[in-house]
Amino acid sequence: MGDLLGRPRERVSYLAYPNLFGTKSLEKKKNVETDEFEVLQGPPCSHEKGRMSILQIEGALCVACSNKSMNVIDIWRMKDIGTWLIEHHIELSGFSPEYSSENTTPLVVNPKDGRIFLNTGLSLGYYDPKMVALETIYSVGILEHAGKICPIICDESLVCPLGRT
Description:
four-stranded antiparallel beta sheet; globular
């Protein structure tokens, strides 16, 4: 069957039925080169208490699980197939109501300094796990007066600028 984890450019990962299975999530992976699918067991976090999102950190598959009642987000990293470890623990109680586990999504971790880029839909910020500090770098203000922001993290582009081959 080959290596379904593959390199990041060879696979597509997405969550499948995260609320259907209680405390266990399923992750679906497709190897683009071989066109094979595999369903992987997700991290042991409870989805009834919050939200989940999928992200990639340094090429590794990660799942962010929020806990609404504790106002925290844990980022789980897959070390081997079926082995998950908590890579980051984000405590947001000191940064509410602007940042809460209910509306905050981790997008990427800066490989140089370890800060975690967060999106609330109304604010973008960097969480520094070493200093337990959060810096808002952009905010749209009050929702009634502005639209939501939808940042996109791109590793590669399908567009080739003019003059480049």
